[in-house]
Amino acid sequence: MSLLEVKDLSIHFGGVKAVQNVSFSIDSGIVYSVIGPNGAGKTTLFNLITGVYTPTSGEIRLDGEIIQGKSPDELARRGMARTFQNLQICMNMSAIENVMVGAHLRLDRNLFKAILRLPALKRRDEALREEAAGLMEFVGLGKYVGARPDAMSYGALKRLEIARALAMKPRLIFLDEPAAGLNPKETQEVDHLVRKVADSGITVVLVEHDMKMVMNLSDRILVLDYGRKLAEGTGQEVRGNPDVIAAYLGTHA
Ligand SMILES: Nc1ncnc2c1ncn2[C@@H]1O[C@H](COP(=O)(O)OP(=O)(O)OP(=O)(O)O)[C@@H](O)[C@H]1O
């Protein structure tokens, strides 16, 4: 059984069919990329799978169990974490506290109950701080453990977001354009980090425009165009597909 199965998934926003009858499945342990021209439906697909949107029709299964309609929090607790196309870093908190938010999201089913147990919470916070520092080290931000986000480069903040998602201890991580806006050196650092995340056993789902990175990292690639599945396969299969070439060169109607 695949880790994630998507069947005939559609969502319509008024007249806009952002995702239309898309089906695919993702096996555990792979890097699976979703590519396509601007407006193809990639982020919408992420939003559907991670519970931000409820589909108009279709089915999403995690470990065989239907998950569409469940909240993002519930899905996070079931092992799905994500990063966003636009940075979602809280500038009022230190870098490490941003990472700790990920762990809190994992643990706090009942925040009120947690507040009543303040001493235990404090001990837990110390443990989480240590765990978060380890994750910052893992993403190459060890020297920023005591820093504030406004002292960090954009590239470092993109990796901080990945550390926060990892603090949720996911089985499946969704990365929405982790290399967008990065220079070539920063892009390479993210490329290495995604490989490291995948090697640690976490299944990676990637939306990315940087084709070198996509081809380098992906075990399988889904190509969307106008909300529809245009092709799916290995990098080599997808690259040689005439429909994909036409979509990217804009030669189709
Ligand atoms: N909440 C919404 N309401 C109305 N239309 C939407 C909404 N979200 C997305 N769309 C539309 O759905 C289509 C797909 O958008 P989406 O952002 O998923 O594309 P994308 O492939 O992620 O694009 P990009 O590469 O530019 O990020 C677009 O036509 C977009 O305008």
UniProtKB/TrEMBL annotation:
Q: Which PROSITE patterns match?
A: ABC_TRANSPORTER_2
Q: Which Pfam families match?
A: ABC_tran, BCA_ABC_TP_C
The source's domain of life comes to Bacteria
What is the protein's given name? ABC transporter ATP-binding protein
Q: What high-level taxonomic lineage is stated for the organism?
A: Bacteria, Pseudomonadati, Pseudomonadota, Betaproteobacteria, Rhodocyclales
Q: Name one GO molecular function term.
A: ATP binding
Q: Which organism is it from?
A: Azonexus hydrophilus
Keywords of this entry: ATP-binding, Cell membrane, Membrane, Nucleotide-binding, Transport
ABC transporter domain location: 4-251
